[in-house]
Amino acid sequence: MTGFGWFYRLPLTVRVPLFVVALMVAVSVAISERVLDRLSDTREAYLQGLAATYLDSVVASITASVLREDSWEIFDTLEQMRPTNSGIAPIVTVVAGKDGTVLASNDPVRHQTLAPLPESFLLNFTGSGVVIGEETGEGYASRDIRYQHQLIGRIYAVFDISLLTRERRQVLVALVVTNAALTILLGFIGFFAVRAMIRPMQLLETHMSEAASGPATPIPEVDMPKSNREVMRMLKAYNALVHAVEERKSLASRLAQEEKLASLGRLAAGMAHEINNPLGGLMNVVDTLRKHGESESVRARSVAILQRGLQGIRDVVQAALAENRPERLERPLSVSDLEE
After folding, report:
1. Start-end ranges of CATH 3.30.450.20 in the chain?
2. In terms of Cα–Cα distance, which of 36, 47, 33 is closest to 132?
3. pLDDT of 49-58, one tens digit each?
4. SS3 of 97, please?
5. Beta strands 102-105 and 131-133: pairing type?
6. Cα dihedral angle (131, 133, 134, 138), rounded to 10 degrees?
7. 103: closest CA among 69, 73, 77?
8. Half-sphere exposure (CA, 13 Å, Cβ side) for 58?
9. 3 state SS of 132
10. pLDDT tens digit string along 72-115?
11. How many CB atoms lie within 10 A of CB 225?
12. pTM above 0.85?
């Protein structure tokens, strides 16, 4: 898992196309290998049939000449049976006796008559049927020549299979180019498709990140994908959550304001009560002074009551001021303070 850690750190818009490309490469390799194997089987079957037909016809035509060891007649037969319009033609045909000496060849310069076949030439005909030489681009096939179940010679044929090799190479190039083009195309399609699919998720992630560091804002309707119902429901659920949070904040603000007003009302009512009682007594003292003010004892008691009442009102006001006065920061005394 640690070896692929870099892959999981890539964005999703990159990971999915890369995964698609990897799958396409694996599929293309498997398909290419299967097609090339099938093509090789078809090529080998075609070559086997062609070689068998050619060797059977040559053996049937030269058996009597091999019995007589008539090299000229064998050579003439080989020349007459040389294909001229076939893409896969025998380029060398050698007829040897049972002792391995050359009776005739369509290339007498390379394989001289009555000369033994070289070991390097015979090593190419080690298997049954047609032996394909991938490096030389040639196919090698041989056949016994028998007369009345007696071995009288052997024919060796070398075929030019460069056409089949060239066709295989062309098919390989076509497969590689086609698979590469499809892989690149599907990679781009996957990139843009995944990008379009996760764009609503990125939009939701952006709004949630903004909500984590500041006020939450609803997603505009124009940014919502109308064609994707599941994503629409999810984004609308987020907007409903944002609206619910805003309503809760608004309700909390209203409740705090109402509580503040209620506290002010209770404070005003308390102060009115604390001030109204002394005022009532002070009004009575004023009436007493107005009626009996000529008496010195009445005036003294009335002044004392007035003083106590006014001190009580002053104490209530000072207590209210001290309770509700905002905190003041300490600062140096200024000239303006002295002037005040």
Report:
1. 2-181
2. 47
3. 888 888 888 8
4. strand
5. unpaired
6. -100
7. 69
8. 34
9. strand
10. 998 888 888 877 655 667 888 999 988 889 999 988 888 888 89
11. 15
12. no
